[in-house]
Every structure is written in C-alpha cells, then in structure tokens.
Sequence to fold (498 residues):
Amino acid sequence: MSPVPDARLEALLLRTEIDAFNTEYVAKLDRQDLTGWVDCFAENAFYTVISRENFERNHPVGLIYCEGRAMIADRAFALLKTAMFGPRYLRHMLSNLSVVPEADGTVRARANFIVFEVLMDWPEPRVLLVGEYRDVFAREGGTLKLKERRCVYDNLLIPTALCIPI
Amino acid sequence: MSPVPDARLEALLLRTEIDAFNTEYVAKLDRQDLTGWVDCFAENAFYTVISRENFERNHPVGLIYCEGRAMIADRAFALLKTAMFGPRYLRHMLSNLSVVPEADGTVRARANFIVFEVLMDWPEPRVLLVGEYRDVFAREGGTLKLKERRCVYDNLLIPTALCIPI
Amino acid sequence: MSPVPDARLEALLLRTEIDAFNTEYVAKLDRQDLTGWVDCFAENAFYTVISRENFERNHPVGLIYCEGRAMIADRAFALLKTAMFGPRYLRHMLSNLSVVPEADGTVRARANFIVFEVLMDWPEPRVLLVGEYRDVFAREGGTLKLKERRCVYDNLLIPTALCIPI
Fold:
C-alpha cells in the first residue's frame, strides 16, 4: 500500500465539510427554516447581500447588512412577518466551490449560487439572483460557523422586492 | 504521518460514488439512452415525478408513477414512440448533493436538479424544470441501484407536455 | 484501522484536482483575466467552441477554433479590443464532472456548464449558453494543463454575438 497523501486528503475533507455546510445552509432557506439558518452564523458574524457593482468598487452599501447573529436573527424574523415572504418556492443551486485554509485557523471559501423562484403568479421557475458567496468560516466549540458571508449578486436589477436572505 | 480519518473517508468515498451515479444517470437521459437509464433502477424500484406542492401535502399524485423496473421500462419505451420525444436537446445540471447511509445498508440521498431544454422552435436554452431528487439507493449484486427516486419539481406550471423521464 | 482504499482515493484526489482547475478556469473568465485563462492551456492545446448539432454530426465548424496556445492568446486579446467585450458580467456554473484517467497519463474529463450574463440593457441574469466541456488534460512540468477543450453548447441560437471564450 502506497502512503496516504495526508495534506491533500485533509484539504479534501475540509472542502467536503464546507460543501456539506453550504448544502445544508441553502436547504434551510429553501424550506424557510430561518431559525436553523440563523444558527449557521457565529456570534459576531458579518452578513451582507450586495451587488457585484458595489462590491467591486468597495462601496459597502448592500440590500441587507448585518453585524452579529442577533441582528441577523432580527432581520430574518422581521421578514417572516412581511406579506411577501410566504407564497413562493425557492431553490438554491450551488457550484464552483473553492476553499483556502488560513494560518489563523479560519477558512476562506467561495461558491457560486443561482436562486430560482416560483410564484403563484409566475408559475415557471425563473432566475431571481445569480452570484457568489465570499466567506470566512471559523469554528465555535468545534462546530463550523460563518464568520463572514458576503452574498455578491450579478444582477443590475432584481425582479421582485428582495425580502429574503440568500 | 497522522492517522487516516477512516469514517470521514468512507463517507466521502460513498458520496463520490453517488455523485458519479447521478452524473451518469442524467448523461443517459441527455443522450436519450433509455435502456441505460432503466438499468439504473433496482428490480423493485419506485420512481415518481411529482410536484413539490403535492409532495409536501403528501398527495401521491404525480406526472409519472412507476412501481418496478418493468413498469419503468414500459413507460420509457412508450415515450420513445411519441412524436414529442425526438427533436430537442436536454441538459441536466445537478448540485447540492447530500448522502446519508442507513443502518440497513441502504443510502438516503438528495440532489437538486435543473433541466434545460432547447427546441427547434425555441432555440435558446430554457429552464424546463427545477427541483430535487429524493432517493434511496441499494446494492444489487454489489452494484449501486436506485431503489426509490422521487423527482420533486418546484414548477407550478410546466412549459411543454412533459413526456420525458427526469 | 481498516486499510485505506488507495485506488479509489487516488481517483478522488485526481477528480478534486480537475474540479479545482475548472473552478479556477471559469473564475478567470468571469473576472476577465484572459492572460490567466490562456495559461490554462498546454503549448500545443486544441480549443474549440462548437454547437452540439455540429459536434454530434462530426462537423468541425465552430464559433471559435484554435490550435496552439499562441493562437488561443491571439484570439483572446483580439477580443479584448472589441467594443462588445467590456460592459457585462459573466458567471459560469459548473456541474456533472466526470474524470477518466488514460493509460498514457492524460486524463479525459467532462463537465456541464451554464454561462449567465448580465448586460446594462438586460439587467436581469439570462442564460447565454448551456453545454458541456469535453476535455483532455495533460501535465506540463508537473502542472495540469488543458491539452484539448471542446466547449459543446446546446443552443440552436445564441442571444448576442458571442465574442468571448467559454
């Protein structure tokens, strides 16, 4: 038996863990489990939904901007009470994951996303958003959490009032 | 050399096997190899194509509903004889795979899908269906087969008569 | 500790390497780093962008047809000088990767792609192309390079003048 390539294997197992995290993260959004979604973030997490145009020009203005899990939770449950939230199906498709471990124990990662929605009055799936997660992960008591998530979307126009986390 | 994390590695290899299975499954559909497609199923397999609306309400009514590989084959080859089947290109995109081995040796899995189609009279790709496979895999003589596949689509409306397996 | 399944593991590590290569390849295109893109190819690489219709009939006529890295570079930088290239966002989504190592040390691979674009005058993302990479990889001084890439797109019609590599 040839020796196991440990470093490549460790990198692959970390990548797999991030991939599983992201899959579960968007599954929570797609089934509207916002309590579970909030739990994906670290205590002091930063979360924003921002246009590629603003992101690339270093303009911090975003559709959503939250500092800390408490603010993320406030935002999520405010959304649940709006009339717009309910009658739609969402489906996130992820791809193009890349993962870079940092010396300080955090992990930088990226993934592309498409968000499809189906509405009662738009009954075929349409593309709501296309873009990229730009993330920093950290461990909180052994568990992987989002320390930073920037949802950078390519759209210059968003078809409906975006009142959902991404 | 640090010890190889065996359980995580076994999980990863199983995940890779399911991923390869799904990639081959949809490649068969995209090149209209329906004989190969039927062969993906176990002898007593259950296969259905059902709306998310009906699935979430536990209404079993689906567009396609097959019990057993013989019924799946009948359905596939009946479709080949319909006029609608031929002149189109299909392309399945998969993502968001999750895999959970069960104590009885079967494997539960999920994956999201987009099905694109190109028609002679609709020459740009459009989204035919968006949804999720909800699966149970089992081994038949060592080979991985689908024991159950539920194709749950988000569409409230399907643009053309859906006369194809998914 | 049970023995490590070496062959499956080596296959998985190779697959991961190809996946990372493809992710980086399209990231370069999406940020318009054409110098980096050209560097993905081997010295004597073959690169073509061709319709599924022509590909399946063995008609070699494609939108883009390049033999050798010099010709690929010429093509890329000619494109940069055209008026069409600038004001758009591109986003490649990859999936359905399959990888087959060959006896001669090269690697055959496939992956599906969607290319989304956002234009100033079409501000919601739309699907520009859907298709498949059909590739041969080789190592040049230890580094993985594309020896052949055929970008086979399903579209019968392309919405805008395609003046970009895929």
User: Anything to note?
Assistant: Residues 6-30 of chain C form the longest helix (25 residues). The helical segments of chain C are 6-30, 34-38, 52-56, 69-80. Chain C has a mean pLDDT of 91.
